[in-house]
Amino acid sequence: MSSEIVLSASGISKSYKSELSESRLQVLEDVSLTINKGVITSIVGSSGSGKSTLLHILGGLDKADKGEVIWKGRSLSEFNSDQLADFRNKNIGFVFQFHHLLPEFTALENVSMPALIAGESIDKASKRAIELLDRFGIADRKHHRPSQLSGGEQQRVSMARALMNNPGLILADEPTGNLDDVNTGIILDMLFELRDQFGVSVLLITHEPEIAKRSDVIMEIKNGKLNPL
Ligand SMILES: Nc1ncnc2c1ncn2[C@@H]1O[C@H](COP(=O)(O)OP(=O)(O)O)[C@@H](O)[C@H]1O
Ligand SMILES: [Mg+2]
After folding, report:
1. Which of 51, 103, 165, 194 has the CB geometry, 3.0–4.6 Å to 205, for a possible disulfide?
2. Shortest CA distance to 6 belongs to which of 33, 36, 31?
3. Which CATH superfamily is domain 37-63+80-228 in?
4. Whose CA is nearest to atom 16 of ligand 1?
């Protein structure tokens, strides 16, 4: 296992205004975490325990009340919103439980999008997008829109999109929560393959003990705290 640190978070706290009372709902309290290169980390925890909140903060989609997220030695709090968007697009592959594909675009266009946003030419982006779709066994669906794809195919397209810019870190929020066993297997095998082949780090939120068991590190969020399981 490499000890190169890809991302670290320290002292992360986050609360939300409670709808029912004056007090705030403390979701995360002084959470610290280090993600090393090539390591697959699973986070488990009951529904509402703050897993998605943590993932969003780590990926720069949301801000903590307190604490810092450090990416390759730089705090995300130093980034303005354009820099943050650029950082996310180039370095982090997000995979959500629901695919979040753009409905009016084809699979090929959806997968190409992150590279086009990063300034890549259409030709180059399309070539790589087709290679990725092919890796997931869905190159023949490249001109289909999300609504014309099955749930498993949609999730494979969103994995391909997440990988488009060769991210060093994949943040996956219950990526197989809606999938059958076959598609779950395809998505998970791909995460492990990426790690083995390219040293990609993966932080994975999951409810499934089987998946957690395969990962290198398992952490649990409980009562706002993150601890090794
Ligand atoms: N934007 C928000 N405003 C208010 N409360 C929120 C918001 N986002 C999440 N919460 C609350 O914070 C808690 C943790 O949510 P979340 O991180 O989505 O949990 P998990 O992913 O573990 O199910 C839940 O009680 C949820 O209702
Ligand atoms: Mg969640």
Report:
1. 51
2. 36
3. P-loop containing nucleotide triphosphate hydrolases (3.40.50.300)
4. 50
Give residue 184 CA to ligand 1 midpoint distance, Å.
25
More confident residue, 58 or 194: 58
pLDDT tens figures, 74-114: 999 999 999 999 999 999 999 998 878 999 999 999 999 99
Cα distance between the two ends of the chain = 19
Neighbours of ion ligand 2 (CB under 5 A): 52
Ligand nearest to C-alpha 14: 1
Domain residue ranges of the chain, discontinuous segments joined by +: 37-63+80-228
Confidence of residue 192 (pLDDT cuts 50, 70, 90): very high
Closest atom of ligand 1 to 55 CA is 17
Structure tokens at 6: 């890809």
Neighbours of 127 (CB within 10 A): 14
Measured in Å, residue 52 CA sits from the centre of ligand 1 at 7
Taking the centre of ligand 1 as the mean of its atom positions, its distance from the CA of residue 45, in whole angstroms, is 13
pTM of the model: 0.93
Nearest CA to ligand 1 atom 13: 48
Strand positions, DSSP E, 18-137: 24-36, 40-44, 66-71, 74-75, 92-95
Mean pLDDT of 151-172: 94
How far is Cα 22 from Cα 207, in angstroms, rounded to an integer?
32
